[in-house]
Amino acid sequence: xxxxxxxxxxxxxxxxxxxxxxxxxxxxxxLVQGRFQSFRDQPLTGRAALSDLAPELAFDLEGQGQVxxxxxxxxxxxQPDLTAWTSGGFNLARDFxxxxxxxxxxxxxxxxxxxxASITLVVPEARYNVVLEDHVPAGFEPVNFNLADADxxxxxxxxxxxxxxxxxxxxxxxxxxWPDRVAVYANYLPPGVYTFNYLARAATPGxxxxxxxxxxxxxxPENAGRGAGQVIVVEP
Length: 236
Known about the structure:
This protein is elongated. Helices cover 4% and strands 44% of the residues. Strand 14 (214-217) and strand 15 form a beta hairpin. By secondary structure, the chain is mainly β. The protein has 2 domains: 15-73; 85-235, Sandwich (Immunoglobulin-like). Strands 4-15-14-8-11-10 form a 6-stranded antiparallel sheet, with no helix packed on it. The longest helix has 10 residues, at 2-11. The protein contains 1 helix and 16 strands.
């Protein structure tokens, strides 16, 4: 801290008396402008759309002092990559099916319906400290039976009644449910096929893109895989 204070005093021995305007191009209107009269003045921040970017960032300066700038670019793809991938560690698939108030089509959801997400995890060889995480579609709300106001009558819908009950559904050691995602953790998984189900309620009408479930060894993240993503539509 002493060295930083000494460097600051050497770089700027006197307080600034500076008026500044920053422009995206010489002829553009100011992106941000203001005055600096103290080392304690807050930074100036401006935002611009990608379509307004120019080849240069120009400054209009009056007075004395130094200007320090930081430029950040944030973007997102028009169509996110929802394809499945694997590094050889895991293979995953996920299906959605309406289970309440009555069974429905697997690709059509209405507000208020309860949907079961079923994730199949294929483990080709023994893995340790595995996490399986699934981001719940934005129009859905996960059902957390640990909450006092959860509808416990839905608990019997978590598992498919046609399953054999071989015990593989209890392969994980810990489960966590957040408003936007569900995760399970296993200390050790021998080679095999595992299934994990959870319930979510269709809450908000709209069209949503949801990435596929992801699994990895927490202490060997190079062993990972992701299932295919999907487009989810919730009708009013």
